[in-house]
From TrEMBL:
Organism of origin: Durusdinium trenchii
Keyword annotations from UniProtKB, A to Z: Manganese, Metal-binding
UniProt name for this protein: Serine/threonine specific protein phosphatases domain-containing protein
Transmembrane segments: none
Coiled coil: none
Residue ranges of domain Serine/threonine specific protein phosphatases in the record: 160-492
Cofactor: Mn(2+)
Signal peptide residue numbers: none
Length: 571
C-alpha cells in the first residue's frame, strides 16, 4: 500500500486549463447550466480540481469534468450573441443555418474545442454484443441478431455500446446510399405499414411492432422521416431516438427489403443542436462521452445525407415528409424523375435558389393549406404551403391518387382532427376520381408519436396500412403504447390495479370521455335496466359502456377506474 502511494505521488501533475478568475459554463449532474467564476485551482495527487462560484452556489469539480465548458473568447462572444438572438427571431426552418464562423462559436460553447480534454478510451463491447459486432462488420447479420438489438432497446437497458451503434449506422449508410432517391415500393404478400413522425417516442414503435408484427418480407415498414429530436415524457422512456434508429437499422441490415426510411426535416445534422438537451445532439451527448458523441453525430449526419427523399407505393401513393415542391406547381415538364435525379450526399439547403434546392427543401418542409395556389407558411423563413389545386394537378400529371405526408400534428386544418393521429386535406374534386380505396381526400397527414412530447392525453398516434384491397388507418392512444412499452421491460404480468398506467393518463381519459357522453351512457343503462331498480350486472354495464365508448377496453381496464372512485357501499 505504501509503495503504491509513493508511486502515485510521483506522477506528473495534470495541467489545468483554467485560471482563477476565468469564466466557465458548468452543468451539474442535476440541474441547468450555470455561468460560474473559477475561484480556486488545486492539485491533489496529480489531479487538478477547480472551485466554482456562482449566484446559485459553489462547487469543487475535476478540471476534466464533462460538465465544464470554457466560456468563449471575447472576439467570439459577439458572434455567439448574434447567433442566439437570431435563434429567438428566426423561424424553425432557418434557425440553424449558420455560417462557418458561427458554427465554430457554437461548437466551442458545446465543448468540442474544450482545452485540455483527453481522448476517451473506447469502452469494450460486452460479451453478448461482441459476436453481433462481428456479424455486422462481416455482413452476416441475421434476423435473430436484429431482434436481439430491438429487445435490448425496448426493455429499458442502457444505451448500446458506442462501437456497436457506430457499426449499425455505418453499415446502414452503405445500404441506403445505393437505394434510389425515389423508392418504388409494392405491397408484399402481406402488408406495408407507414409511420409518420416518431420524434424519439420509442413506446409507439414498440406498440406498433408488437401489434402488427416485426419487420419481415411479408410485413414491410416505411418510416416517413422525423425519427430524430424531441422525445417523450420520462415515465414513458424520455428521449429514445437512438433506440429507434438502432432497431430500424438492425432490421435494415439483416433484411434490407423489410424496412425503409425517407428523410424528414429533422434528419439534418445542422438542425439537431437547436433543441439543446431535448434534441438529437443532446440525447447523444447525454448518453455517451465527448469523443463517442462526436463520432456518433458525424456518423448519423452522414447517414441522414444518404436517405431517400420520397417513395411511391403501389404506383398510387406519393410519400413525402413535408409536401409538394413549389417548382411543380405550374410546370408542365414536372416529373418524378426530378426526385430520382438528385445526387447524394444530399444536404437540406439553407435557401431555395434554384430548382434542385426547392425540390429538397419543400419535400421536407412544406405544408398543405386550404386555399388554392402557393402561400406563405406559419413556420416562416423559406417554407411554403400548397393548396388543393396544386395537389390535384400534380397527382393527375403523375398518374397517382394520394399524397401521404407527415411533418405536423393533425388539427391545424380542421377541428375534427384535433387530438387525432391523422388529418385529411384537399377534398376530392369532381374532375378527379380517387381510385385508391380508403381515401377521403387527396392529401393525408400522418403522425405516429402519441401524446407528443410527453403531453398526456394530447393526441393519438396513427399508422397507414396498405394491403391488397387499398389501405386503412389505425390509431392508438398514448396509454396503449405505454402499456406495450412497460410490458416490454418486465416479465411480470401487467396488473391493471397496480400498473403505473392507471395512476393518471388512462384514468383521466376514461373519466373525461364518460362525462362527455354521459347522456348517451345513461340512456343505455336505463334501456338495459329491465326491473327498473337502478342496478345492472357487471357484464351488462360493460356492454353498455362499450356500445357508447368502444375505444375503451372496459372489460380489462375501465371497471378498475370506477372501482377506485366509487363511493363506499355502506354495507
Amino acid at each position: 500500500m505504501v509503495a503504491n502511494k509513493r508511486l502515485r505521488l510521483q506522477e506528473p501533475a495534470e495541467e489545468c486549463p483554467y485560471e482563477v478568475g476565468s469564466r466557465v459554463v458548468f452543468t451539474p449532474p442535476r440541474g441547468p447550466a450555470r455561468l460560474c467564476t473559477v475561484s480556486s485551482v488545486t492539485s491533489d495527487l496529480g489531479r487538478c480540481h477547480i472551485g466554482l462560484q456562482s449566484e446559485e452556489g459553489s462547487w469543487c469539480v475535476p478540471s476534466c469534468s464533462s460538465g465544464l465548458k470554457k466560456v468563449l473568447l471575447p472576439q467570439d462572444k459577439a458572434v455567439l450573441r448574434r447567433l442566439l438572438q437570431g435563434l429567438e427571431a428566426k423561424s424553425e426552418s432557418d434557425a440553424l443555418r449558420f455560417s462557418s464562423k458561427q458554427r465554430k462559436a457554437f461548437e466551442a460553447l458545446r465543448g468540442t474545442e474544450r482545452p485540455g480534454s483527453k481522448q476517451a478510451v473506447p469502452r469494450p463491447v460486452p460479451t453478448p454484443w461482441s459476436t453481433l459486432l462481428s456479424h455486422i462488420t462481416a455482413g452476416t447479420m441475421t434476423w435473430e441478431d436484429a431482434h436481439s438489438v430491438f429487445q435490448s432497446c425496448s426493455n429499458g437497458e442502457n444505451p448500446l455500446p458506442c462501437s456497436l451503434l457506430l457499426a449499425l449506422v455505418r453499415a446502414g449508410k452503405e445500404l441506403v446510399r445505393w437505394e434510389p432517391m425515389l423508392l418504388r415500393l409494392s405491397v408484399p404478400a402481406g402488408r406495408l405499414v407507414i409511420l409518420g413522425d416518431t420524434h424519439g417516442h420509442l413506446k409507439d414503435v414498440v406498440h406498433i411492432w408488437k401489434t402488427e408484427g416485426l419487420p419481415s418480407k411479408d410485413l414491410v415498414y416505411l418510416f416517413n422521416g422525423d425519427i430524430c429530436d424531441r422525445g417523450d415524457s420520462e415515465r414513458r422512456g424520455g428521449q429514445r431516438a437512438l433506440q429507434i434508429w438502432a432497431s430500424v437499422l438492425a432490421y435494415k441490415i439483416a433484411a434490407p427489403e423489410c424496412i425503409y426510411v425517407t428523410r424528414g426535416n429533422h434528419e439534418d445534422r445542422d438542425y439537431w443542436p437547436q433543441y439543446g438537451a431535448t434534441g438529437f445532439s443532446g440525447e447523444i451527448e447525454a448518453k455517451y462521452d465527448r469523443s463517442e458523441a462526436d463520432d456518433l453525430l458525424d456518423a448519423f449526419g452522414e447517414l441522414c445525407d444518404q436517405l431517400p427523399l420520397a417513395a411511391v407505393v403501389q404506383e398510387q401513393c406519393l410519400v413525402l415528409h413535408g409536401g409538394l415542391p413549389r417548382c411543380w406547381a405550374d410546370d408542365p415538364s414536372r416529373s418524378l424523375q426530378d426526385l430520382e435525379a438528385l445526387e447524394r450526399p444530399l444536404c437540406i439547403p439553407e435557401n431555395v435558389d434554384g430548382r434542385q434546392k426547392q425540390l429538397i427543401y419543400d419535400a421536407t418542409w412544406a405544408d398543405p393549406q386550404k386555399e388554392n395556389g402557393l402561400g406563405p407558411n406559419d413556420r416562416g423563413g423559406e417554407a411554403i404551403s400548397f393548396g388543393p389545386d396544386v395537389t390535384c394537378s400534380v397527382l393527375k400529371s403523375f398518374g397517382l391518387q394520394l399524397l401521404l405526408r407527415s411533418h405536423e400534428l393533425p388539427g391545424r386544418g380542421s377541428e375534427e382532427f384535433k387530438g387525432r393521429g391523422f388529418e385529411w386535406w384537399h377534398a376530392c374534386e369532381d374532375e378527379m376520381e380517387v381510385l385508391l380505396k380508403g381515401a377521403k381526400g387527396l392529401c393525408l397527414s400522418l403522425f405516429t408519436a402519441s401524446d407528443y412530447c410527453g403531453c398526456l392525453e394530447g393526441n393519438s398516434g396513427a399508422r397507414v396500412i396498405f394491403d391488397g384491397d387499398g389501405f386503412h388507418i389505425v390509431e392508438h392512444q398514448g396509454w396503449e403504447a405505454e402499456h406495450a412499452f412497460l410490458q416490454s421491460q418486465t416479465e411480470k404480468p401487467f396488473d391493471p390495479a397496480e400498473g403505473m398506467l392507471f395512476e393518471g393518463p388512462l384514468e383521466r381519459s376514461v373519466i373525461e370521455a364518460v362525462v362527455e357522453r354521459k347522456h348517451e351512457l345513461l340512456a343505455e343503462f336505463m334501456a338495459s335496466d329491465a326491473p327498473k331498480d337502478w342496478l345492472l350486472p357487471l357484464e351488462s354495464w360493460q356492454a353498455c359502456c362499450h356500445r357508447v365508448l368502444p375505444q375503451i377496453p372496459w372489460q380489462d381496464h375501465g371497471f378498475h377506474v370506477f372501482a377506485r372512485h366509487a363511493p363506499p357501499s355502506g354495507d
